[in-house]
Amino acid sequence: MVKYQRYNLYNHWKKNKEHVVHDDEESYLRSICGNSGYCNKKPSPKLLYFTVLSLISCSLILAPQILSSNSNFSVFWLGSEPDGNGLCSSVPNGTICCDRSSMRSDICIMKGDVRTHSASSSIFLYRNNGVNDFVSAPSNDENDELEVIQHEKIKPYSRKWETSVMDTIDELNLKVKGKESSIHHRCDVQHNVTAVFFSTGGYTGNLYHEFNDGILPLYITSQHLNKKVVFVILEYHNWWIMKYGDILSQLSDFPAIDFSGDKRIHCFPEAIVGLRIHDELTVNSSLMEGNKTIRDFRELLNQAYWPRIRGLIQEEEGEAQLKTEKSALSPSSDNLIDTIKEKQESKRPKLVIVSRNGSRAINNEDLLVKMAEDIGFVVEVLRPQRTSELAKTYRVLNSSDVMIGVHGAAMTHFLFMKPGSVFIQVIPLGTDWAAETYYGEPAVKFGLRYIGYKILPKESSLYVDYDKYDPVLIDPQSVNDRGWEFTKKIYLDRQTVRLHLGRFRKRLLRVYYYSIAQKKKSLHRQSQ
Ligand SMILES: *[C@@H]1O[C@H](CO)[C@@H](O)[C@H](O)[C@H]1NC(C)=O
Ligand SMILES: *[C@@H]1O[C@H](CO)[C@@H](O)[C@H](O)[C@H]1NC(C)=O
Ligand SMILES: *[C@@H]1O[C@H](CO)[C@@H](O)[C@H](O)[C@H]1NC(C)=O
Ligand SMILES: *[C@@H]1O[C@H](CO)[C@@H](O)[C@H](O)[C@H]1NC(C)=O
Ligand SMILES: *[C@@H]1O[C@H](CO)[C@@H](O)[C@H](O)[C@H]1NC(C)=O
Ligand SMILES: *[C@@H]1O[C@H](CO)[C@@H](O)[C@H](O)[C@H]1NC(C)=O
C-alpha cells in the first residue's frame, strides 16, 4: 500500500516538477530558478517518502482540556484522499485546522475571533475562555504577550511540490492565543464575512499559472460562499486586480485587501488560508459543494465578461448608427455590402488562430490562414499579450467554432471557447506530455472536441539544425529524460513550426464539416 502510494506520488511529483512552467518569458523563469540548477533537481524517493509522511498531517485542537503546555498537537494519518475536502470540513470555534494532505497545496481554516497582523506576517485567533490558566512562554514580540496555544505556518500558494517557487512565497504564521484582554487587540475594520488568504506571487504573470494556480483554485475555494467573502492577498499586484477584476467581482462582494500594504487590523469571524486545487485547469465536481463543474466556472466567466462586452457592442452600434446617418445624406452602397457580408459571415464557421511569434511560432501562418479561408472558415488571428484585455479575448473566442494554437501558456484560452467547439493544439517535437497534460486532457474534460496535432520532424525548425537521425528528432523522449533544461533549451525556446499544409488540411476539413453541422444544430434549436 505504502509502496504503491509512494510510486504514484513520485510520478506525480516528478512530472510536475520537470514541467515547471511553459513560460514565454525566459528571464522571468531564470529569475525564479536562478543559475543554481535548482529547478532541475529530481527529488530522491527517500526524501519523498519522508515528505509524504509529514504532508499527511492535520493539526486540530479538539478541546482545551487535552492540551498540554506543548503548543502543537498534530495527528498524522496515512491513506487519506490526496485531494479530498474532508479533513477540515467542520472546524470548532476557536481552533485552526490545517489540511496538508494534498500534494499541491496546504489549506488552513481558522474559526472565531480572527485578526490580521501584517507587520509580523501573522493571523491571530483569540480564544475567550478556558485557556487563561496556561502559563505563557516569555517572548520579545510585542504581540506575543499572550501564550500561543497553537502555531501553524503556511505559504498560501498552490504549487507546494515545487520548492523553487515556494521559496519566493511569503509565509504566514497562524496563531491561536488565549485572550486576557481585548484592549490590546482592537479591530480597525470589522468584517462580518469569511476571509480567504492567498498569494498572487510565484509564477503569476503567465496566463496558464494565473488560471491554474490562482483563479481556478480561488473559484474552487470560495464559490460556495456566494460572494460573502473578502479576499486578502499576499504579494498583491495592482495589475492583477485590474486584469481579473471582472472575475473577482463575481466571486466577492467586497474589495480585496493588500495584506502587507494595509497595516490595519482586519477582524473576521473565519479565515481560509490557502487555496484548494484539483487538477490541471479543471474543477472536479465530486470535490465541490453543489457538484459545481468546470462548465459552471465558464458560466461565471461569461457573466463576468458580459457587462464589458455589452458596453463594447453598444459603442460599436453607436458608431454604426452614426455611419448610417452620414451615408443617408450621401448615399453609397458600401453599407449595404457590409451588411450582406456580415450576414454571410455569420453562417460560416469561425476559426481563431492564437498566434505566437518568436519560439513556437507557425512560420507559414499566412498560408494556414489562406487555406482555412479557402475551406470556408472566417479566420481571425489573435496575438494575446500579457496586457491584452481578457474580456475582448473572451468575446472573440466565445463567438468562435475552432481555436488553433501551438502548445504554450496561451492555450489556457481554451477556457474561453464554448463547450462543443473545437480546439486544435499543434504539438511541437518533445512537448507531447506537457501538451496533453496541461491542455489536451483538461480541454476534453471541459467539453471541447480536442485534436492534438503532433508535428512530424520535417515540420519542425529543428529539422534543419540536426542530423536526420539525431535523437532530438527521432527520440525526443530520450532528450527529455536528460532533464528539464534540455527540454526547455531545445524544444521550447528554439523550435518553430512549418505546418505541412496537406497533412493539416485533412484535419481542418473534418473540423469544417463538424462545425457546419454544429451550427445547423444550434440554428435548428433556436428556431424551435
Ligand atoms: C466564536 O468565538 C468568538 C470569540 O472567541 C465569539 O465572539 C463568537 O461569538 C463565537 N462564535 C460562535 C458561533 O460561537
Ligand atoms: C459588520 O457588522 C457590524 C455590526 O452589524 C457593523 O458595524 C460593521 O460595519 C460591519 N462591517 C462591515 C465591514 O460591513
Ligand atoms: C475527482 O476526485 C475524486 C476523489 O478524489 C477521484 O476519485 C476522481 O477520480 C476525480 N475525478 C476526476 C475526473 O479526476
Ligand atoms: C451531486 O452528484 C451526486 C452524484 O451524481 C448526487 O448523488 C448528488 O445528489 C448531487 N448533489 C447535488 C447537490 O446536486
Ligand atoms: C457568448 O456566446 C453566447 C452564445 O453564443 C451568448 O449568448 C453570450 O452572451 C456570449 N457571452 C458574452 C459574455 O458575450
Ligand atoms: C512579437 O510581437 C510583438 C508585437 O507584435 C513585438 O513587440 C515583439 O517584439 C515580437 N517578438 C518577437 C520575438 O518577434
Automatic annotation (TrEMBL):
Keywords on record: Glycoprotein, Glycosyltransferase, Membrane, Transferase, Transmembrane, Transmembrane helix
Transmembrane residue ranges: 47-67
InterPro entries linked: Glyco_transf_61_cat, Glycosyltransferase_61
Domain Glycosyltransferase 61 catalytic: 327-424
GO cellular component: Golgi membrane
Topology term for the membrane: Single-pass type II membrane protein
Listed Pfam families: Glyco_transf_61 (PF04577)
Localization: Golgi apparatus membrane
Domain of life: Eukaryota
Keyword Glycosyltransferase: yes
Gene Ontology MF terms in the entry: pentosyltransferase activity
Name under which the protein is recorded: EGF domain-specific O-linked N-acetylglucosamine transferase-like
